């Protein structure tokens, strides 16, 4: 369980306040969508929950362990053992092949079976291709395979379909949902696309650094059933 | 104007190298031309006199020529770097109808960094001349007045500036000869696709290490040269100081060595870190420790560092042995020169400490960088 309590964050030495007393709880195996417009603070909240950015105030507990009580090395170890990331901009290493990019994650978990994950995202034939030869959707799937190869307990996704067209985005989302349900992962996704929220167990709406609403979907839809 | 002042600031390295080259050549060649016309040299001083002239010629030729070549390589490196970083903008200009050569002509301003270095080097060379003349001139010879040689100004300042500016335009023109569509795509066509033979056997970190070196060959040169300068000039300076009793020349060599090594190593390490900022931030986000990240980015250069150090050590030993046993062989009471083993280890340890400090400073900077910021840079 992830428990976030009274998180505050500002930039430029306090001049720009991004998060105000953010508190939320996420149960294991849930798919949570954080919904909000650009500048609502959702990516900052995601980064803080993932152990990437220290908050000014507040706590982030993973099973009673406050991750921001850890020093930098221990926090790195925490990320190494617990979290995976997928970003809108992919951040693939351009000089490495698909297989080598996925090994970035796989080596951290001592996972030698990474070709199976590449196969699971449908890219076996692109194993030795460089990222710039792939389409946007394929690059996003490499990014997903890289995150899953490290066998994370929690998967964080920052606008993963933001740069994709409808068909590709829908396919990418379908892959993610399928894998999340199959592996029982806790998954936290940030998006501004309201339709994607219908696929989640829990939806948290944010505006101006605050949570303005939370609701649960009793019957989350599949990626094929939602509008775009 | 496509090249901004901000871009030119990065060329300070070329200014520093050309400064060092012209600085050394100015006082040695001026000294040579002033002293060679002395009317009467006593017979007992003739061996030392000839040795001094040979040393002035030799040092100016070797160090000046060597640094001029390095400045050329740096100039070409920066032009390529500039083009790689501004591929899309240059592609837009070409798409709008500007020819390669119209764009390439703008690169003459890169020669400005050479003008700055040579002018300052020439000026400082003249400033230090009275001190050098006092040190180099042999006791018993008449005092030599410092004469202004206009030829030196042309050969060391004006000619190099024009040559380097021309070379910059020519190289830029040749580098820009790519299809506009490739430039628009950010020059990705330049990324060579080679079959990866070691995919299964190597770990990710080993793969990163290997790619960092193979995709940044020009930086390998700067690492080798920077370490070479450090090893050669530091050991040479202290050997001259301790064994050959020539502290003033030793000091000049030490300063030039440190400046050259500093410029080359900072250039190489900064370019390497800048090229890998996103990769490093990504690796940190995924949970790689800083020591692993450092090893992945810098570790591949370790054999090159050792090569640079070994070459520099052999070079300084060879040069000092040559000076003592060949150029100064007829001079009476010439001190003996032997290889200084403790100095070798002290120099190597100092180099490692300096590199560790530089890498640690980058680590502090990168720890504060988020992935979004890194990608935006």
Keywords summarizing the entry:
heterodimer; A: 228 residues; alpha/beta; Rossmann fold; six-stranded mixed sheet; four-stranded antiparallel sheet; 6 helices; 29% helix; 28% strand; B: 377 residues; mainly alpha; 16 helices
Describe it:
The complex is a heterodimer of chains A (228) and B (377). Chain A is of the alpha/beta class. Helix content of chain A is 29%, strand content 28%. A six-stranded mixed sheet of chain A has the order 6-7-8-3-9-10. Chains A and B meet through helix 2, strand 6 and helix 3 of A and helix 9, helix 12 and helix 16 of B.
Number of strands of chain A: 10
- What integer is the average pLDDT of chain A? 90
Write the CATH architecture name of the domain at 28-51 and 82-216 in chain A. 3-Layer(aba) Sandwich
Radius of gyration of chain A: 17 Å
Classified by CATH, the class of the domain at 28-51 and 82-216 in chain A is Alpha Beta
Shape of chain B: flat
Multimeric state: heterodimer
Might you state the CATH topology name of the domain at 28-51 and 82-216 in chain A? Answer: Rossmann fold
Biggest interface reads: A-B, 37 and 29 residues
Most strands sheet of chain A: 6 strands, mixed
Tell me the span between the first and last alpha carbons of chain A: 31 Å
Overall form of chain A: globular
